[in-house]
Amino acid sequence: MNVQEKTIEYGKNSQIHISINPNFWQLCKPFQQVSKDDFLSHRWQVKHTVYGFEAINTFLRSVASSDVVEQVLLGLRLAPMAVRLTPYILSRINWLNPIADPIRRQFIPLANEYEQDHPMLTLDSLGEQEDSPLPGLVHRYPNKALFLAQSHCPVYCRFCTRSYLVGQDTHTNKKVQYEKTIKHWKEIFKYIDSNREIEDLVVSGGDCYNLSPKMLEYIGNGLLEIPHLRRIRFATKGLAVDPTKILSDREWTDTLTRIVDDARKLNKHVAVHTHFNHPNEISWITQSAAKVLFERGITVRNQSVLIRDVNDNFDTMATLIKMLGDMNIQPYYVYQHDMVRGVENLRTDLSTNVNLEKRIRGITAGFYTPTFVTDCPCGGGKRVSCSYEYYNRSSGVSVYIAPSIKSDRAFLYFDPLVSLAPDIRKAWLNPDEAQELCNEALSKVNCISSEWKNSYLNSIASLVQLRN
Ligand code: SF4
Question: Is the pTM above the cut of 0.85?
Fold first, then answer.
């Protein structure tokens, strides 16, 4: 089958070619004989989802060289996330060149791409467990909370910020377990009900796509009954990795629509937050699914992660923003890649983020321009990436403050080791020198308490020792 392409142009001299094959999945050998009706069925997608070591091994042997398969199998032994991929997303990978493919990079590890973790990395990099009054609920910002209704997704992203709890255990990562029953959800509703300052709730996990219509309804109704809760966001990457659900799982889509409509009658707002990172994730099926949501009056916003060699260049990011806008999906955030374990080859340094934001701003209307943010390690919350108090490109340390969240602390983000000069890289592996690099950065910020600063600096030596 010939590859049919559409050229998207924006700005001066910028264009990207997008595949628009109507039956694009038939380019992927295992799906060559799959009919349009089957491929568009969410049930079929779930039934043929590639899940676990053996299944990915079998799939890859039909589409990739033995070298690639070997590197993937070795890579999976090091990975903090299990592998799970829908036929939809597998069919968006260019299997003629999987090594360079931006979708393959996000979901399928190669052992020979691994880079040494920065010693300041932790598994729960945002310190969510510290801000959890109950398992499955993160309450960090005064008027916002995050409800982790369950811990599974239709696909698993290598770079998941919640790799400490999402998905199955892997060879290197035993996941945090917590109760995900209706009984426990009731406890969470009770907590939200008794904390009147909570106006805004993100329902995530895991992915809301994996909630059955009954569960979705139960959660939606339960939350809408809480008088002070004004806004609810259902987080799902589903639209990007299996848009067929919106088109073929009518019960789920109708339930979501009903919750949105009920909220509107109560003068409240329910939205969907989704997660596209690259234009290649978008097909005519995605566009049809997004149209259904738009026609039903459902607000959809997108949160991308900035990923090295996936979307860290102007052409790709600008195209993604344009294509999202054309689907009436608001490009809301671009996140600096979190400092999670085992995916250092996907992280960019902070300057890439700041420079890209400079180029992006102005290509379209402000309300369709994403804010580039850094979710501060250790629970500082999201800060606009360029709003750091201090950034040393040579040591790779940036410092943020979050006066409305934790006013006596600072929050440090660290560029990947590979982006630093060899002598600085070496310094990070020495506990005393690592402490000195952090001390130098913290000395530029006035508002932090000396008690917090001392305890932070003391924790660095043990963290670095642990990694060595
Ligand atoms: S869909 Fe979201 S929660 Fe699930 S693995 Fe990907 S980033 Fe993590």
Answer: yes
